[in-house]
Write a structure and sequence with these properties.
The chain has 212 residues and is of the alpha+beta class. It is built from 9 helices and 4 strands. Helix 6 packs across helix 7 (185-194).
Length: 212
């Protein structure tokens, strides 16, 4: 099966691409954009009228939302062992952490980068951005504490949650006031461990060259 991934650099589509690489399945990248003032592919908008990427096409349909795509792909290709099976004791933690990353942590990023969505007037946007930074610090601390001395987010086994975590760490920009991974040693440790994976080296080559 060939997948199609509507894709833009710097977006959550990069995390989905890493998963596709880890699964070893064929896929095609379809260039899109996160700039809402620019034209986006009609096929993408048909699946996700919000206009965001990632959108994953398969067979005659598609799916959007990065966490949903992650769960879908990992369950569909369960032999790759990127997610706990349904009867695994860590299945609940896997789902909980994905949802927390995709809602609480990503919403904190959105509050900073898109403050107009969270306030009534432009005069309050600076306050929203400040709150976004505070929430980044709060939400990352929750995940850092959860990891503890685990090898990976869920324990001893690498999973798609580690991919999702790494993706979000690349969005942190301390020059804008965001917290650094230096504040979260367990997150930093896992993010650094991720750097040795060929899938990360491929998908994040540009980011690595500019930030590492």
């Amino acid at each position: 099966m060939n997948y199609k991934l509507f894709y833009a650099s710097g977006s959550a589509a990069e995390g989905v691409r890493v998963i596709l690489e880890e699964l070893g399945v064929p896929y095609e990248l379809i260039k899109s954009t996160i700039d809402r003032s620019k034209q986006r592919p009609p096929e993408q908008l048909k699946i996700n009228p919000n206009g965001w990427v990632p959108v994953l096409m398969y067979e005659d349909t598609g799916i959007y939302e990065c966490a949903a795509i992650t769960i879908f792909l990992c369950d569909r290709h369960s032999d790759a062992h990127l997610a706990p099976k349904f009867n695994d004791p860590t299945r609940g933690l896997y789902l909980q952490t994905l949802v927390y990353l995709s809602t609480s942590v990503q919403t904190a990023f959105q509050t900073y980068y898109y403050p107009d969505r969270f306030v009534d007037t432009s005069a309050n946007e600076a306050s929203a951005k400040k709150r976004g930074i505070n929430r980044l610090r709060e939400t990352w601390k929750v995940i850092d504490d959860q990891i503890g001395d685990n090898d990976w987010v869920l324990g001893r086994c690498f999973s798609a949650v580690d991919i999702y975590l790494f993706m979000l760490t690349t969005w942190l920009n301390p020059t804008l006031g965001h917290p650094s991974t230096e504040e979260f040693p367990n997150i930093k440790r896992i993010a650094e461990a991720m750097m040795s994976r060929p899938s990360i080296q491929l998908v994040y080559a540009e980011w690595i060259s500019e930030n590492v």
